[in-house]
Design brief:
Helix content: 40-55%
Largest sheet: 5 strands, parallel
Strand order of the largest sheet: 2-1-3-4-5
CATH topology: Rossmann fold
Radius of gyration: 17 Å
CATH superfamily: SGNH hydrolase
CATH class: Alpha Beta
Number of strands: 5
Strand content: 5-15%
Shape: globular
Number of domains: 1
Order of helices and strands: HEHHEHEHEHHEH
Distance between the termini: 28 Å
């Protein structure tokens, strides 16, 4: 087990008595859980938090967690000119999703896209449409493979750190587009958690293990029970 996951589990057991939670089961046929996304997923912080909570609530289940996040990736297939100093365009999920699903054969997929899909530019209907089309395609491909999918909205953007004024509002728009479409289809949208007192720019936004515990309870209640 990765050291950072061990630490997260330890922290979880220290914190859990402070906030009573009830055990939540996942569907009996769920054994392999896949995480798709960009560098946010690749970093593994929220992945470890979700995994820690699931393991703590289902200690007897032989669950497997696979993180295949890829830095800079988009689901829209878009890339800004001069990305990575002009060395290469942003990776496109369309190029690898088929191979990922074939090799990992997941039962449940978490997918977190949007942060890179706006290309850190003002809101543009063309880019927005490409993102919606990409998410629709992703959803259909995962369902076609026999797995379930939970879409995670893009997290808040720190405009003070990122220097792209107005991009937090772009991501808010991207998150909003997910909800009416996929909540209606599969009740499988979850909002990225934020810290109390988060500013509109997302400067103080950080996912926490307890927030992710709440997310998993919500997802189980509406989606993963059977």
């Amino acid at each position: 087990m990765p050291k950072n996951l061990v630490f997260t589990l330890s922290l979880f057991f220290l914190l859990i008595p402070a906030v009573p939670v009830s055990a939540q089961s996942i569907a009996p046929n769920v054994q392999r859980i896949l995480f798709l996304g960009n560098s946010i997923t690749y970093a593994g912080n929220y992945v470890n938090n979700v995994a820690a909570y699931i393991i703590a609530q289902n200690p007897a289940r032989p669950l497997e967690f696979i993180n295949v996040g890829l830095p800079s990736e988009t689901v829209s297939g878009l890339s800004e000119e001069g990305h990575a100093g002009g060395s290469f365009p942003r990776p496109d999920l369309h190029e690898r999703l088929g191979r990922v699903l074939e090799k990992t054969k997941p039962d449940l997929v978490f997918a977190c896209y949007g942060m890179n899909d706006g290309i850190y530019l003002p809101l543009d209907q063309g880019r927005f449409t490409k993102f919606k089309e990409g998410v629709t395609w992703l959803h259909e491909q995962v369902v076609k493979s026999g797995a379930r999918i939970i879409h995670v909205t893009p997290p808040d953007y720190d405009e003070l750190k990122g220097k792209q004024t107005g991009y937090a509002a772009v991501l808010d728009k991207y998150a909003t587009c997910l909800k009416p479409t996929y909540f209606k289809i599969s009740r499988a949208i979850i909002q990225w958690p934020t810290s109390p007192g988060c500013t509109p720019s997302g400067a103080k936004a950080k996912p926490s293990i307890l927030n992710w515990a709440s997310i998993w309870r919500w997802a189980c209640k509406y989606f993963c029970m059977g």
